From TrEMBL:
<dbReference type="InterPro" id="IPR037138">
    <property type="entry name" value="His_deacetylse_dom_sf"/>
</dbReference>
<dbReference type="InterPro" id="IPR023801">
    <property type="entry name" value="His_deacetylse_dom"/>
</dbReference>
<comment type="similarity">
    <text>Belongs to the histone deacetylase family.</text>
</comment>
<dbReference type="Pfam" id="PF00850">
    <property type="entry name" value="Hist_deacetyl"/>
</dbReference>
<feature type="domain" description="Histone deacetylase">
    <location>
        <begin position="20"/>
        <end position="304"/>
    </location>
</feature>
<dbReference type="GO" id="GO:0004407">
    <property type="term" value="F:histone deacetylase activity"/>
</dbReference>
<dbReference type="InterPro" id="IPR000286">
    <property type="entry name" value="HDACs"/>
</dbReference>
<dbReference type="GO" id="GO:0040029">
    <property type="term" value="P:epigenetic regulation of gene expression"/>
</dbReference>
<protein>
    <submittedName>
        <fullName>Histone deacetylase family protein</fullName>
    </submittedName>
</protein>
<dbReference type="InterPro" id="IPR023696">
    <property type="entry name" value="Ureohydrolase_dom_sf"/>
</dbReference>
Length: 307
């Protein structure tokens, strides 16, 4: 079975300035490693198409979309919060990022791919129903999950997020939708400090103290995520694949490495095999050391592609 690799070169045009960590270099580094190792040749490479306004509004207020459209500058950058900025190409890239996840979902649900990885930016998991934040404008993974739930035979989905930051946006969008299980591991206390303590049966928040070793992460997956997945039995699993909990990542203070990403992907694969017809759509979120990011994505994809 095939692993689809979905991206678009215009995702590189979103540029928040030369010193911003969420830079086009991230996607270039991933491509370089996947090409050099030959892994790219073993995947079905597809080009993202932009999400429509209706598709964006599966997870966002119409007003959210309108406000962003009004803010796009003709040149330079305009900040939507202290660390998130729009350049003239940002929203086009954001539509491609969300559309890439919809394409991935369609490929997996139609059986044309067993699973898919979306190498897209801007990332999405901090974007709430009516709020852009934390480098995110549209919640790509949430839009894909909402799209999946509209398809015949898809009644329950799971979104699994191992980015070092808590997925406040994904929780905001799904907190009152019990058909969506959201599991998150994240450094705590740490940005963004929203929805970390929410109490809902479909939200599994696993805070991890800074400087914890990888056994704490693995224990959270084994003791919290896996039992929740066993109970939820999702028809398809989405992954918010952020790699900024890597020990070499400059942004945060957890101590994972490539082998932890390989391990967690294996755990998710086993669950998908058991409950979800092997269907997985993985979506890039954070990861700000280009080298650590690229090697982590390689480990993640080696498992997804069955290497
Ligand atoms: Zn992050």
């Amino acid at each position: 079975m095939t692993t689809a690799y979905i991206t678009h070169e215009d995702c590189l045009l979103h540029n928040m300035g030369p010193d911003h960590p969420e830079s086009p270099v991230r996607l270039q580094a991933i491509r370089k490693v996947l090409e050099r190792t030959g892994l790219m040749d073993h995947m079905d490479q597809l080009t993202a198409v932009p999400a429509s306004a209706e598709q964006i509004q599966l997870a966002h207020a119409k007003l959210h979309q309108k406000k962003l459209e009004m803010k796009v500058p003709r040149e330079g950058v305009v900040y939507t919060d202290e660390d998130t900025a729009l350049c003239p190409h940002s929203l086009d890239a954001a539509h491609l990022a969300a559309g890439g996840v919809i394409l991935a979902t369609n490929r997996v649900l139609s059986g044309k791919a067993q699973n898919a990885f979306c190498a897209v930016r801007p990332p999405g998991h901090h974007a709430e129903y009516n709020l852009p934040m934390g480098f995110c404008f549209y919640n790509n993974v949430a839009i894909g999950a909402c799209h999946a739930l509209l398809q015949e035979g898809i009644e329950r989905v799971a979104v699994l997020d191992f980015d070092v930051h808590h997925c406040n946006g994904t929780v905001d969008i799904f907190k009152d939708r019990p058909e969506v299980l959201v599991c998150s591991t994240f450094q705590y206390p740490y940005y963004p400090e929203r929805y970390c303590e929410i109490d809902r049966p479909n939200i599994v928040n696993c805070p991890i103290a800074a400087h914890s070793d990888n056994s704490v992460f693995r224990k959270a997956i084994e003791e919290r995520w896996l039992p929740a997945l066993e109970a939820h039995k999702p028809d398809i699993i989405f992954i918010s694949a952020g790699f900024d909990a890597h020990k070499e990542d400059p942004m945060a203070d957890l101590n994972l490495d490539e082998e932890d990403y390989r391990w967690v992907t294996q755990q998710i694969m086993q669950m998908a095999e058991k409950h979800s017809h092997k269907r997985i759509v993985s979506v890039l979120e954070g990861g700000y050391s280009p080298v650590a990011l690229a090697f982590s994505v390689q480990a993640h994809l080696e498992v997804l592609a069955g290497f």
